[in-house]
Amino acid sequence: MNFDYSFIIDLHGQDSIEATSSVLNALFAFDENKNYEYFDIITGNGSGALKFVVSDLLETENYRYKFLNQNQSIIRVYRKKR
Fold it and tell me: Which InterPro entries does the entry mention (predicted)?
């Protein structure tokens, strides 16, 4: 059996304030549930503003992350840096 201990949030259609709130809520849920190994954030292609907002927020909050695709529209978030 292959268990996927992750979840996804999609920020399509959100402005930077809504996206920040969504990501902070997801980070809280992520920290509360130790069963999750990571979670993915879909920022979409658009202007690219959300990927910068999200990556800056993740760095400020001290989370490890990586972009999963070439256009950097999907971000995988891992546990905080130690």
Answer: Smr_dom, Smr_dom_sf
Distance CA 74, CA 79 (A): 17
For the chain, the structural domain boundaries read: 6-78
Q: Can you name the residues that pair with 67 across neighbouring β-strands?
A: 75
Percent of the chain with pLDDT over 70: 91
Enter the pTM of the model: 0.88
